[in-house]
Amino acid sequence: MSKSTDELFKNVISHAKEYGFVFPSSEIYDGLSAVYDYGQNGSELKNNIKTYWWKSMVQLHENIVGIDAAIFMHPKTWKASGHVDGFSDPMIDNKDSKKRYRADQLLEDKIARYEKDGKKEKADALQTNLDDALKADNLVALRDLIIEHEIVCPVSGTRNWTDVRQFNLMFSTQMGAIADDADQIYLRPETAQGIFVNFLNVQKTGRMKIPFGIAQIGKAFRNEVIARQFIMRMREFEQMEMQFFVRPGEEMKWYAYWKEARLKWHLAVGTPAEKYRYHDHTKLAHYANAAVDIEFEFPFGFKEVEGIHSRTDFDLSQHQELSGKKLQYFDSEINQNYIPYVIETSIGLDRMFLLTMINAYEEQDLSEGDKKDSRVVLKLHPCLAPVKAAILPLTKKDGLPEKAREIMNRLKLDHNIIYEEKDSIGKRYRRQDAIGTPFCITVDHQSLEDNTVTIRHRDSMLQERVAIDQLDKIIGELVSWKNLLAK
């Protein structure tokens, strides 16, 4: 069934809630803007994406190790990183609707509309002007472009704009027993700094030699004024980051390596290659000498999922200066002390989750002649699927539930398995299709006679008869992490 991109996105959001993947946070109190909870199937899928990233990053690389740094960090950390002084977005208010927008996003939306309408020259010219204004931090020029291109507020429909101002995105709080005497600290806006401040701890205790990497998965917090597009842009989100420490002068070699390696990781789960593209940064962050985004084509256009950045020695140099502690590495091969350069790979877990859902979601028309039929299926890679197999007794009597439970108890030692006996077998198949379960195992009367069951495959809907003794091997091979990691 063909759907417009808007419809597809709405249907995925609706499906995510209906089948226990994502819920609006605090929904009984009418929710909290741009904050979401992951449900029973969502948390499983999220954990499987994390496992895939961690195994491919840490398990497969003998020179990459993982840490788990605290969310709270000393306030000087964020001074050194540049977040206190420079972590802000250019915001503009509409005087009539009282709504606030990111100036650059308003202009990017306009560029997308020009491209959609076939006005390529206008789109290219505006993109060039936008890039120039952002590079120069020229807030007046940003406002002038919004006026010149007659951009209206989506709510009020007017062009009654304020000046563009910078808005800091860090959440602050107090640490201490008495608020008046407390020190102001911040919820971390990124996970990278926890890696940098632990650079020497990890290097010395792990006896790590350059080049080596430190990986981390963790929550970060940004006071996004424009939080939109479901879980694309949230105030509380999760990052999977790896900082790779290299010799100065070798950073571009490793930048090219990680750029290629990270795209391979994305493609291994079966996402069509044409859905991805690289987007080189025109305006580099203050710490970078090269930066590229891996973008995915969501229903609302190509958007960043992962960034690869060459961060130079900025972070370690800044922390060395502000802390007064030496963060140098002695390279015995060249008999030299230096502050390493860093290549960063940073992926938004929530965006990867959304990408996975969108890519897997399919509405299929199964009608034959006058017989109308359809199904919604999540074609998730078996490694990522929340539930690996469903055990379904054909009826609730004649010893079938007992036999099914026996199989369940064997398989659940290795895999996340679900048992279900309510409704017709067809309805149960459809429910499992909708959550992405790769295999349904039906226990029927023949199972009691010859110890065989029917395995139904989610994608093809084909069924085959197999021995119960073979189930461990069959399912184990089909959902093994080797299938992804070998790629």
UniProtKB/TrEMBL annotation:
Q: How does it assemble?
A: Homodimer.
Report any Pfam family annotated for this entry: HGTP_anticodon
The record lists ATP as bound by R222, N223, E224, E304, V305, G348, L349, D350, R351
According to its UniProt record, which reaction does this protein catalyse? tRNA(Gly) + glycine + ATP = glycyl-tRNA(Gly) + AMP + diphosphate
Q: Does the keyword Protein biosynthesis apply?
A: yes
Q: What is this protein called?
A: Glycine--tRNA ligase
Main location group: cytoplasm
Its lineage opens with: Bacteria, Pseudomonadati, Bacteroidota, Sphingobacteriia, Sphingobacteriales
Signal peptide position in this chain? none
In terms of CDD domains, this protein maps to: GlyRS-like_core, GlyRS_anticodon
